[in-house]
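Sample pair:
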Amino acid sequence: MGPVGQKWLKSFHILFGCTWAACGLCLTLMSLFLKPTEGLQLYGVDMSRKFIDDIFVAPAATGCLLTGVIYSLFTNWGWFKHRWIMVKWCISIFGVVFGTFWLGQWLNLLPPISQTEGMAALSNSTYLHARTMNLWGGAFQNLTMIFAVFISVFKPWRLKANKP
């Protein structure tokens, strides 16, 4: 892959990574700071969070993962050349798996319950568990994503050149 191709790839990888991280942060902040006072508002917040997850987070995570694969296959960065790349792979794969099978599932439970129960959903143990797990799991994932951004910039744990 030539230099121009690498710049395009890097641009899309950064765009997808920033979108994934920023939208994940928005989901967590919405959970913390939006305090609905009636059932339709609660349902609206839950549906808004589901919309952001479905329309922005999932495609951005997929795009980030795919551009990472292209980076590893078609550039000199490789898969295992540097420890920081392996850490980013672990974070990315964890993020996609955890986001798909846990965070997304917990988030998807919320709108149907708040739609049918309104504010009474806040007394529903299934709703409260899914909401709490999504909040704490999302916060943890946000921290790992921010960590991935920083290690992308600082590139720690580089392999040292052989010393005589």
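The chain has one domain: 3-154.
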